[in-house]
């Protein structure tokens, strides 16, 4: 015998006062991020929210850089989210990276291809993965470095996108070594020239590129 329907009056239904704002912020985040799988992304969003961790949310809407063969792919905004989520530790396990990658609804094959560019073990140095991600987004070494600067900078959006010279040097040298066709002396000469330019641009303080 079916149970009778329970009747509620307006006085019996209590809506938590914070719920409307939570749902409003969630909706705005979903619109900015445009996740391929909303349910999967939503699970990651509320999990991070409940734990006080960085949310998997883009700062603004962006056009995806995916190829015509797939309907989802890595973008600068998604790579920045990953950086904000794992930058607290220099090393990150591949398992954790795969989980965060999945939460952003990114193709598993793309991460696998990125990790195959170097001889990584079960733990990877995040800044190297970030550099390789930028190389996927950029069509050249300088274009890749432009993405890296825009992701790592603390300058306001639309600003100079400066980063510490030591960080720039590490990323550039690493990508040049992965490329395998850029002589080491050419890399060193380029970085020396950039450091001199940074000195002039910052009135004697070589802090940023």
UniProtKB/TrEMBL annotation:
A GO CC term assigned to this protein in UniProt: motile cilium
Q: What is its main location?
A: other
This protein's UniProt keywords? Cell projection, Cilium, Flagellum
Q: Where is this chain's protein located in or outside the cell?
A: Cell projection, Cilium, Flagellum
Tell me the protein family, please. Belongs to the ropporin family.
* Record protein name field: Ropporin-1-like protein
Protein species of origin: Bubo bubo
